[in-house]
């Protein structure tokens, strides 16, 4: 098995099993995964910073078993960590991916997908953004999600709120509303998103549901408002997804989404690792505003 | 001597040696309970529904395997029962390895083996393992669980040590330790220091003093005496620059 | 932010002190189940329940107690527990070095690794290297939670491995187990040796998978095809939302629909 010791920012890290085919049908190896994350690092790191990482590890590749890891696995002393309280009151140490070397370390553990909460570890109960997780049920697809996303954008913009959209890298879309204010709670964002979902469901009963249960979701887009919770995580923007081919959760411009929705080809709404790198290196971080834009939920 | 835990028969080739398992270790420690600070009532554990925040009795609990956050595959007792290994009384030896090949990280728990009443071949097996300096890698099923273990001879006694599975052991590699250059002088003095501080392993020298002190503290507090609270102290770390100096001073101290 | 393992403190030998943290060396097998509520598949959390007040007790109201007599407990605080051996609760002091081959493995209890904390990298590396060169392991005592452990610290593949050891009086004597008569049939031993010789191999733990775990995983895989159940959202949000928010959104909605 190949092993390689690299030095990043003066820290030595041993990378192993580099030739392991993590996306076998695509010939995409661990070396490719590491290379993708190394190049996307300038864009993804600000979105991972100070957030409790949930690893989703695929040691044997995307076709084999995976496991979630919230607790920080044994790590070099230079990996930054935070102590958080779990639901059951117990303390837990989590990793913070705050620099390139930690990102490389995490990818060496084959955590293809990187999931993070909507709040930073230092203020776990204060969401810095609000999310509408659009998940198509059976017989619905990403084009239906795009329709819902565009309606959402119109609604939000009339409330004076800017929002940003990214592909989930699977079948859905994620619409983010930046907040970045200290006085907001998950209770506020959950109530707000749920109410929006209820109103959308009433107005578009054939397109939208806000109910979790499978039987309500057939042919519709489920607006998963419950993601606005301190215990939940979202796949990080620019993260790879563990599907047959290495797709990425990638930001789209609204104009682009309008156009793609009009063209009617769901495949065009998927962004591959190669396209992601090309665009990110040319256009920079399209999701930057999510981190910095300060917005308040309207007091209605 | 502890009670017999299980009975079985060591098997390989045309050898069968019936044995009884006994615990090799007995731990006794001071037990604490969890109390409600207010009224000092002993607390019970209770499973609470995260959604409704109410206690859920055992009969309303099911087991789920989390495939994705918040998504579970439910398995019932009958399905899990299928995975219970068939009961057997056989300690199957699959192969023999040289003593010392098994990294101590794999060792889990030691059992002493006693020859069962009509056992023949126990002494011979112990002699063969001892003289060849080997141990047997074996599997067996005990209390509805399958075990991997090492069959060893220690003097005239046979032992069975349960082993961890390969994927349960965390590799040193994953710690990501740095390789830092050291000077020959540091290494030489360090090694000399170790030589000066080396003695025979005498486990009887080490008593669980803490347990006794803890018992004394409990008695003192039970009598109503006040307990002085002492803060733990941290040693000042030796920096890389001070290392050689600290080693030299250490050597001077012990020499 | 401070790095936290199971425990963090200092390991010392003679006048050298190295800041370290204790981390796991073994992980129990991976198939772990979550307990769920059967009616809605909500995850269950373990909480402490006071039978007298019939209420859940938050962590800050819980204290350890020693049972003096049936139903009569003496509360002991964490500070008091730490006061028992304050010098050992933050320091693993190596009191002497030994040849680990002299230690009967029956003494081994639980394995951990030590990893250096910031600033301790070089002395850590030194201790690893000199113990490797001299084939020696350090003996120390230290206190974790309310227990004191005798531990052996050794060098392994460039790291410090720490194994807790059982105390001498915890090891049960094996004399009584000893076979009654020491008679050994040389012929029989020779026959066994032949058999053993044909079965010699190198130790390869990877060969022996945990069959139970594999069976459980096979069942899970089969069931996964039929789909998983989903737990409800983190907590119960009642109703549809604040009426005034709904009214305002409905207003805007009409406007949005008109203009699409």
UniProtKB/TrEMBL annotation, chain A:
Alphabetized InterPro entries for the sequence: LigD_pol_dom, MtLigD_Pol-like, NHEJ_LigD
Molecular function via GO: DNA ligase (ATP) activity
UniProt xrefs under Pfam families: LigD_Prim-Pol (PF21686)
Domain of life: Bacteria
Residue ranges constituting the DNA ligase D polymerase domain according to the UniProt record: 29-286
Gene3D superfamilies xref list: DNA primase, PRIM domain (3.90.920.10)
Keywords: Ligase
Keyword Ligase recorded: yes
Enzyme Commission number(s) of this protein: 6.5.1.1
This protein's name: Non-homologous end-joining DNA ligase
Source organism phylogeny: Bacteria, Pseudomonadati, Thermodesulfobacteriota, Desulfuromonadia, Geobacterales
UniProtKB/TrEMBL annotation, chain B:
Keyword DNA repair: yes
Ku domain residues: 52-180
Keywords on record: DNA damage, DNA recombination, DNA repair, DNA-binding
Gene3D superfamilies for the chain: 2.40.290.10
Pfam families, A to Z: Ku
SUPFAM superfamilies hit by this protein: SPOC domain-like
Subunit structure as annotated in this protein's UniProt entry: Homodimer. Interacts with LigD.
Family note: Belongs to the prokaryotic Ku family.
Role summary: With LigD forms a non-homologous end joining (NHEJ) DNA repair enzyme, which repairs dsDNA breaks with reduced fidelity. Binds linear dsDNA with 5'- and 3'- overhangs but not closed circular dsDNA nor ssDNA. Recruits and stimulates the ligase activity of LigD.
Protein name: Non-homologous end joining protein Ku
Organism: Geomobilimonas luticola
TrEMBL record, chain C:
Protein name per the record: Non-homologous end joining protein Ku
Source organism of the structure: Geomobilimonas luticola
Function: With LigD forms a non-homologous end joining (NHEJ) DNA repair enzyme, which repairs dsDNA breaks with reduced fidelity. Binds linear dsDNA with 5'- and 3'- overhangs but not closed circular dsDNA nor ssDNA. Recruits and stimulates the ligase activity of LigD.
Keyword entries, A-Z: DNA damage, DNA recombination, DNA repair, DNA-binding
Record family assignment: Belongs to the prokaryotic Ku family.
Limits of the Ku domain: 54-182
Gene3D superfamilies in the record: 2.40.290.10
NCBIfam families per record: Ku_bact
Subunit structure: Homodimer. Interacts with LigD.
């Amino acid at each position: 098995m190949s092993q390689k010791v690299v030095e990043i920012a003066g820290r030595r890290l041993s990378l192993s099993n580099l030739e392991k085919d993590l996306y076998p049908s695509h010939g995409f190896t661990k070396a490719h995964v590491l290379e993708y994350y190394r190049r996307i690092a300038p864009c993804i790191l600000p979105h991972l910073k100070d957030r409790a990482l949930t690893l989703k590890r695929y040691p044997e590749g995307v076709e084999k078993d995976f496991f979630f890891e919230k607790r920080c696995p044994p790590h070099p002393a230079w990996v930054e960590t935070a102590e958080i309280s779990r639901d059951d009151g117990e303390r837990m140490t989590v990793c913070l991916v705050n620099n390139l070397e930690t990102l490389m370390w995490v990818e060496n553990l084959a955590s293809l997908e990187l999931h993070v909460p909507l709040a930073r570890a230092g203020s776990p109960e204060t969401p810095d953004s609000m999310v509408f997780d659009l998940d198509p049920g059976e017989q619905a697809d990403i084009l239906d999600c795009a329709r819902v996303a565009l309606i959402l954008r119109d609604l939000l913009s009339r409330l004076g709120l800017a929002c940003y959209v990214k592909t989930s890298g699977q079948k859905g879309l994620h619409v983010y509303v930046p907040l970045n204010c200290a006085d907001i709670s998950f209770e506020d964002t959950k109530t707000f998103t749920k109410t929006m979902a209820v109103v959308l469901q009433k107005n578009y009963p054939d397109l939208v549901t806000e109910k979790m249960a499978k039987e309500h979701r057939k042919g519709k887009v489920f607006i998963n408002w419950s993601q606005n919770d301190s215990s939940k995580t979202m796949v990080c923007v620019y993260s790879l997804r563990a599907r047959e081919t290495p797709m990425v959760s990638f930001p789209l411009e609204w104009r682009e989404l309008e156009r793609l929705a009009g063209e009617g080809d769901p495949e065009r709404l998927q962004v591959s690792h190669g396209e992601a790198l090309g665009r990110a290196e040319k256009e920079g971080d399209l999701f930057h505003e999510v981190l910095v834009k300060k917005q308040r939920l309207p007091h209605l | 001597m502890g009670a017999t835990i299980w009975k079985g028969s060591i098997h390989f080739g045309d050898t069968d040696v019936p044995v009884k398992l006994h615990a090799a270790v007995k731990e006794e420690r001071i037990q604490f309970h969890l109390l409600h600070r207010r009224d000092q009532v002993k607390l019970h554990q209770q499973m609470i529904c995260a959604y409704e925040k109410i206690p859920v009795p055992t009969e309303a609990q099911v087991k789920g395997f989390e495939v994705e956050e918040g998504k579970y595959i439910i398995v019932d007792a009958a399905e899990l029962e299928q995975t219970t290994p068939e009961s057997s009384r056989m300690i199957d030896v699959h192969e023999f390895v040289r003593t010392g090949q098994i990294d101590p990280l794999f060792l889990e728990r030691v059992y002493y083996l006693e020859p069962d009443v009509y056992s023949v071949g126990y002494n011979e097996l112990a002699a063969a393992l001892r003289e060849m300096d080997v141990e047997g890698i074996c599997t067996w099923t005990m209390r509805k669980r399958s075990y991997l273990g090492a069959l060893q001879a220690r003097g005239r006694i046979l032992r069975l040590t349960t082993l961890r599975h390969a994927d349960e052991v965390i590799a040193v590699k994953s710690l990501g330790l740095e390789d830092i250059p050291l000077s020959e002088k540091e290494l030489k003095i360090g090694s000399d220091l170790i030589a000066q501080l080396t003695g025979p392993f005498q486990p009887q020298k080490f008593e669980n003093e803490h347990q006794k002190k803890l018992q004394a503290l409990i008695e003192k507090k039970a009598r109503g005496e006040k307990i002085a609270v002492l803060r733990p102290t941290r040693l000042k770390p030796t920096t890389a620059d001070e290392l050689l100096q600290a080693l030299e001073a250490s050597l001077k101290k012990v020499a | 932010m401070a790095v936290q393992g199971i425990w963090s403190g200092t390991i010392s030998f003679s006048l050298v002190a190295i800041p370290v943290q204790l981390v796991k060396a073994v992980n129990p097998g991976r198939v772990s189940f979550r307990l769920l509520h059967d009616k809605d598949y909500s995850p269950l959390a373990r909480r402490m329940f006071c039978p007298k007040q019939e209420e859940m007790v938050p962590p800050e109201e819980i204290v350890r107690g020693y049972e003096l007599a049936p139903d009569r407990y003496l509360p002991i605080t964490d500070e008091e527990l730490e006061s028992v051996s304050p010098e050992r609760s933050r320091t693993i002091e190596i009191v002497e070095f030994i040849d680990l081959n002299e230690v009967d493995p029956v003494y081994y209890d639980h394995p951990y690794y030590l990893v250096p904390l910031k600033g301790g990298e070089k002395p850590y590396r030194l201790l690893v290297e000199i113990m490797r060169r001299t084939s020696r392991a350090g003996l120390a005592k230290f206190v974790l939670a309310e227990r004191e452990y005798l531990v052996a610290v050794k060098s392994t593949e460039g790291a410090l491995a720490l194994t807790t050891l059982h105390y001498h009086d915890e090891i049960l004597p094996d004399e009584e187990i000893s076979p009654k008569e020491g008679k050994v049939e040389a012929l029989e031993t020779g026959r066994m040796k032949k058999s053993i010789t044909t079965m010699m191999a190198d130790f390869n733990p990877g060969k022996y998978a945990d069959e139970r775990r594999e069976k459980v995983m096979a069942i899970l895989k089969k069931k996964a095809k039929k789909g998983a159940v989903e737990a409800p959202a983190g907590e119960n949000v009642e109703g549809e939302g604040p009426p005034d928010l709904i009214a305002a959104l409905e207003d805007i909605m009409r406007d949005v629909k008109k203009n699409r």
